Amino acid sequence: MARAFVKAGRRSIAGAAAGLLTAAAAIGVAQVVAGLTVPASSPVLAVGQAAIDLTPQPVKDFAISTFGANDKNVLLGGILVVLALFAAATGAAAVRRLSWGLWGLGAFASLGLAAAATRPDATAEWVVPTLAGAAAGAFAMVRLTRAAVALSPAARSPAGPPESSAATAPGELEEPAFTYLPNPDEPPRRPRRPERRQFLVASGLAAATAAVGTVAGRVLAERYNVAKARAALRFPAPAAPAPPLPPDVDLRVPGLSSFITANDGFYRVDTALLLPEVDPATWRLRIHGMVRREVVITFGELLKRPLIEDYVTLTCVSDPVSGPYVGNAKWLGASLAALVRSAGPLAGADQLLCTSVDGFTSGTPLAVVLDGRTLPAEGGLLAVAMNGTALPVAHGFPARMVVPGLYGYVSATKWVTDIEVTTFASAQAYWAVRGWAQQAPIKTESRIDVPGSGASLPAGRTPVAGVAWAQHKGIAAVEVRVDGGPWRHARLAAVPGIDTWRQWVWDWDAAPGGHTLEARATDATGYTQTPVQAPPTPNGASGYPSVGVTVRR
Ligand SMILES: Nc1nc2c(c(=O)[nH]1)N[C@H]1C(S)=C(S)[C@@H](COP(=O)(O)O)O[C@H]1N2
Ligand SMILES: [Mo]
């Protein structure tokens, strides 16, 4: 009995190792094939992407608030951990009965296939990497399982028949059919232990396949890089250049967010595990649906339209009060209103359902886009450049939407290729389906950047500074209070228009002790931001930003 357990334990460990190596080799092969065909069709990415789309909102909120910009790496890490556990269990099962292991492998491959085949942008070839990986996995599993079984004490026993099944607990340790039975005529081979070598060689091959496959897959996937096409782009001078920046848009308070957010410091929020690499040479935008005539334009045609340049602050609906998901850039793009008008929207339409190349959708109120107002960028841009360079790939290269005054999820589709003119009643966009509001204008908000939360400051005069935003309206005032005392007016920086955030600063005579600073903004319509605290779901966070500090004597 005890021997049986030891044997079972050893065999399980060898089996689990074989299972892990099997999975690693299968994934390595799948990665290479994905690299050779469609990188996004890798089963690991497809499962991750499906998990992102299927994750319940509370889990997603938790992940974003806990892991922030790292949430995608945490997700991929989690998937790999689950995969490893499953693979180890499958391998341990396979040394008992190979068919159990193959069923496990099949179950796993099915998951990959289902995920890859149901991606919104999937084509038939998306199943190929998973199938290739599964085939490699089956081969590796047979070889490794045999080698693992040969390692077990029963099989290595040089004399006599293998332990009779009477020595094992009932049903516990069936000898697999392919166990290498020792040949009684062979001399004992104890010292060289060829079974161990066989296992190590098979393991080494599997590990090498995994490593080479993963690296080669990555290198191959980079062939799809649009870096060259991006660097080669030249943009015509804007027909409507951005207004000149007043010199005092930046108050130059150390620690205060600069008026313009640099591209590489700009927050990034999207559902893409693998950034879409869209070649401007093949990019097309189709405008269709409730229109008089469908319009399809190429990137070259887009650049021939009169381009508008303007400053617009983007805000994510999932930005908590005092959060980081807001940034301001100078955008260059074609008028969205003019593009939509060129298709002739029909009466009754009220939504632009905008789809990206990877299947994400946003739903923008048609009225906001067509309400031209007086400023050229007011109705939104089909943007091609950000802060003077082509859009970074992470920010939607080669074209994205930017609509002032609407949270990103209802307006700012990156890698956009399709605009359907439709109604809110008949079509729901990505986040609306997942419980967020269908319409979501950006709430008037402020943020305290300086001093930082938990800061320790010397007593005396010190700046309290931050940014405030009410895109499409403009910021008219910001007030600050200390420990719930009277509100004091902050000094506002200049702004080039109403669609950007605005810096503010208030000079505080800080007395020793612990203090709480709060701020509130009033927009140009006279509305003052509400003290009522609301979480980001379903239509944006609200409440005063608050910072606790300690003032030293
Ligand atoms: N294709 C695509 N576009 C997208 C998203 C996305 O997930 N996929 N997220 C939207 C959201 S929620 C926001 S807040 C903005 C963020 O734009 P940024 O990453 O350039 O800051 O992009 C929007 N556009
Ligand atoms: Mo967002």
Structure in words:
The chain has 553 residues and is α+β, with helices and mostly antiparallel strands. The chain folds into three domains: 2-177 and 193-223, no CATH class; 263-433, Oxidoreductase, molybdopterin-binding domain (Sulfite Oxidase, Chain A, domain 2, Alpha-Beta Complex), CATH 3.90.420.10; 445-552, Immunoglobulin-like (Sandwich). Helices cover 34% and strands 21% of the residues. It contains 13 helices and 19 strands. The protein has helices at 2-36, 43-54, 57-67, 71-94, 98-117, 128-151, 153-156, 194-221, 227-232, 299-304, 336-343, 366-370, 430-433; strands spanning 284-289, 295-298, 307-315, 326-335, 351-356, 361-365, 381-386, 389-390, 400-402, 416-422, 445-450, 456-458, 460-469, 475-482, 488-489, 491-492, 502-510, 513-523, 546-552. The strands form four sheets. Strands 2-1-10-5-6 form a five-stranded mixed sheet. The longest helix has 35 residues, at 2-36. The structure holds ligand MTE and molybdenum atom (MO). Ligand MTE binds at residues 266-271, 314, 316, 356, 358, 360, 395, 408-409, 412-415.
